[in-house]
Structure formats: structure tokens, C-alpha cells
Design brief:
Blueprint lengths: L31 E4 L6 H12 L1 E5 L18 H6 L2 E2 L12 H17 L3 E5 L3 H9 L9 H8 L3 H11 L1 H5 L6 H14 L3 H16 L4 E3 L4 H17 L2 H7 L13 H8 L5 H25 L4 E2 L1
Helix pairs in contact: 3-4, 5-8, 6-8, 10-13, 11-12, 12-13
Length: 307
């Protein structure tokens, strides 16, 4: 019987580009990353590459971590998961919070365990920040401090610029000094860490470049019309095959889970606030916007090979 995708279509050689240049050495266990915008065909390609590399698939999609959200998040089907082992799919209750840091802590031991058995981890997904934490770790820059930011916001911009030039001339020279937000953030880093923001940024960029040289993976690229057509097909299939029932069954969800594209739109449809056509249009528009942001993110990841 032919292998099938989560939409029920058979997986055919040539449906998605298989990067043969990475599939020659069957013994390597260096993780392999398959990235790309939503609806680009990552899951189908992951199955093909996992078979070629004797690999196991590890989820890197923020919403496919949740159980009970399989249809809305377009998670691999049970049939697909039976073809090769899949990890980190449907492991969180919809009420649980999750972020890039918690994902990194979940994924690292799973990847190490796969490697310990001589298998290749195939990390598959489009959640850029989750992938960044996994590949490079969290940034050393401090998070925003509300009290400090309020104090900075109360001061004239000229004062902030003068202080930044005194504390960190290098950072001041490469900051758009007419932009209060940029100046405040640079000062915030200096004040909170007691170090120059420019030094911290330079150290992080050097580390990022070094780590990137050890990574391997691809980013799927599709033409805009092709990707938009795939998005529309998936939205239609999702609404036709149980998404309404899935959302209706989830009474309480975390703030993160609720951000899944389609969740709020389908709730509005169920409540009678919008009709089916409007719901479909809203989901398509939000998904296209998200895909564009993903494409922008992955273009910055120079270690990913375009496919």
C-alpha cells in the first residue's frame, strides 16, 4: 500500500525535493534539520529522508506539541507516524504553557537518545525561535525589565543617546539613534549586565557563526502561488475533516495553544459570529502572513541549504 500524507495523498518520489547530497552517508548521526514555511511539505519530505538516513523524526512545531490539536496544527497522521518513529508530537496537554526554552529542554534528551542508538534525528518544523534555541541556545542578552524601561521612557531621547555614547560608543555608532526603542534596548543591556552591549552582541554572533558551521539541514522553498494554493487546500481539508469538532472539544487551553492559526477563527465560526467562507478566508490570510514571516526568518539562517 502506498504511503500517504496527513491529507490522505500518496507520497510519491518527486513530490518534495530530496537532497541526495546529504543522503549518501547512512552511518552519520549528526542531526538533520528540515525547515520551511507552513504547508510547504516538510512532513512528507521528512518521511522520505528518514527512510534514506535510517532516521527518526523529531517535532519542531510549537503547536504540534499539543494533544487534541492534531487537525488544526496539521500534525502527521497516525499512519505516517507508524512508518518511522516520531517524537514530541502530542505530548503536551492543551492547558500547558510552552516556549522556546521549554521546547529545547524537551528536545535535547530525545535527540541524544536517538543518536545513542545510531539513528539520525530528523528535526522537522517551522517554529523558528524553537529551532534557534535548539541549534544555538538562548541569546545571552537579558530580557526586558519593565521598571527600567519605564524609567528610560521617562527621560528625553537626547539624554539616553548621550548615556549610550558614554557607556558603549561602539553600540551607539551602529544604533539608529533617532529610534527610542533601539536606544533604550541598548542601554537596558548595558545597565542590566554591567557590560557593553556591543561586546555581548559580538560574542553571540561569533558563537552563532561557529555553531552554524557544524549544522546541516535544508529549508524548503516554494513559489508564492504554489505555497498559497497549498495553504488554501490544507485549510479547506482541515475544515472538512474534523477541525470544528476538535476545537469545540477543547474547552480550556493555554494562551500559547490558543495562538494556533485557525483556533480563534474556528471558535468564531462555532459561535455563529462568522460563516464558513469568512472563516476559511481568515485562516488562509493568517496562514499566508505567518508563512511570509517564516520565510523571512529562515533566510537569515545561512546554514540552511535552500531546496
Amino acid at each position: 500500500m502506498a504511503k500517504r500524507t496527513s491529507t490522505g495523498d500518496p507520497i510519491r518520489s518527486g513530490d518534495t525535493p530530496v537532497p541526495t547530497k546529504f543522503c549518501d552517508d547512512k552511518s552519520v548521526v549528526t542531526p538533520y534539520y528540515i525547515c520551511g514555511p507552513t504547508a510547504s511539505g516538510k512532513s512528507a519530505l521528512a518521511l522520505e529522508i528518514a527512510a534514506q538516513l535510517d532516521g527518526e523524526i523529531v517535532n519542531a512545531d510549537a503547536f504540534q506539541l499539543y494533544s487534541g490539536l492534531e487537525i488544526v496544527s496539521a500534525a502527521p497522521s497516525l499512519k505516517e507516524r507508524a512508518i518511522v518513529p516520531h517524537h514530541l508530537y502530542g505530548i503536551l496537554d492543551p492547558t500547558e504553557a510552552a516556549d522556546a526554552g521549554s521546547y529545547m529542554r524537551l528536545a535535547k534528551p530525545v535527540i541524544e537518545e536517538i543518536q545513542s542508538r545510531g539513528k539520525t534525528p530528523i528535526i522537522t518544523g517551522g517554529s523558528g525561535l524553537y529551532l534557534k534555541f535548539l541549534t544555538h541556545g538562548p541569546s545571552p542578552l537579558p530580557t526586558a525589565d519593565a521598571d527600567l524601561r519605564a524609567a528610560l521612557d521617562a527621560r528625553p531621547l537626547d539624554d539616553l543617546v548621550a548615556e549610550l555614547r558614554a557607556l558603549d560608543p561602539a553600540e551607539a555608532s551602529r544604533t539608529a539613534l533617532q529610534n527610542r526603542r533601539f536606544v533604550s534596548r541598548a542601554l537596558e543591556i548595558c545597565i542590566l549586565t554591567g557590560q557593553k552591549a556591543s561586546d555581548l552582541r559580538d560574542q553571540w554572533e561569533t558563537k552563532t557563526r561557529e555553531i552554524s558551521q557544524t549544522l546541516r539541514g535544508i529549508v524548503i522553498q516554494r513559489s508564492r502561488p504554489d505555497l498559497h494554493a497549498r495553504i488554501a487546500d490544507r485549510t479547506r481539508s482541515m475544515l472538512d475533516h474534523g477541525a470544528l469538532e476538535e476545537v469545540a472539544s477543547l474547552k480550556t487551553v493555554s494562551a500559547n495553544c490558543e495562538k494556533a492559526i485557525g483556533f480563534r477563527e474556528i471558535r468564531a465560526l462555532i459561535a455563529g459570529e462568522i460563516d464558513r467562507a469568512t472563516c476559511e478566508d481568515l485562516i488562509n490570510a493568517a496562514t499566508r502572513q505567518y508563512a511570509k514571516r517564516q520565510e523571512t526568518w529562515f533566510r537569515r539562517e545561512k546554514w540552511l541549504v535552500p531546496e
